[in-house]
Amino acid sequence: MTATISTALAADIAKSAELLRGRRIALLTGAGISTDSGIPAYRGEGARTRADPMTGARYLADEAARRRYWVGGHLGWKAFASAQPNTAHTALADMERDGLVTGVITQNVDGLHLRAGSSRVVEVHGTMRRVLCLQCGQVFDRRDIASQIEERNPWIAVPDNIVLNPDGDVAPESTDDFIVPSCTVCGGMLKPDVVFFGEFVPVDRFRAAESLLRSSNALIVAGSSLVVNSGVRIVERARRRGIPLIIINHEPTRADPWADVVLAGGTGDVLPTLKEQLT
Fold first, then answer.
1. Which residues carry out catalysis?
2. Inter-residue contact 32 to 106 (CB < 8 Å)
3. Digit-coded pLDDT (tens) for 25-61
């Protein structure tokens, strides 16, 4: 047990372990699980407020907005893609291999659960690893799009020290003369395979999340404030079934009144300790 865990939190972890022991556990994770990997959260203490987040409608309609998105995204991509899984991610991967965790439903687009070794992961908000052509449906690796950006914009320089936003981008100083990447098959508009603000989670993706939850008889929410509706819908389904609900988050969440145990701590401390008590 780490020194950052207080006596009260240790008691709550023990209570959670007792509730979860012998159960098939599903995880719902949010941005708070990746902050120890250097990716900032949208909300909570120290979070940087996004005054003008990209919406799906704006991305489609506004060429200047798309240009700003791709400049900022490219400048942040190297740092975002090089982030490493932390102790919370590896604890969940270990718990899946041990047969304790059935899988992870994540609101994150960073791919860190997969890189940590979790095999059953539903990325409800998509992933930054892929880019889609909205015209012909071609799928690209984000690394190939980064190469295209650099070929078309040889003047662009990625700084060594940047301040990432939660989406993995940075605020660019200028977007002048930037050439937006396009589909190399049909020349169509490209869009990262992520759900922008104002867009709906694809039906098949949410059904996969529901299927994972149905195969489980306990739910842990880790690092999510549950402000986004997709997370609330998952928790509501668990609540209706009456299965144990454990919430791990530094700040209060919308679902705290429903939880059997609320663990007010960091996922990087709590999940490895919980894993030890369940194995």
1. 125
2. no
3. 999 999 999 999 999 876 555 444 555 678 999 999 9
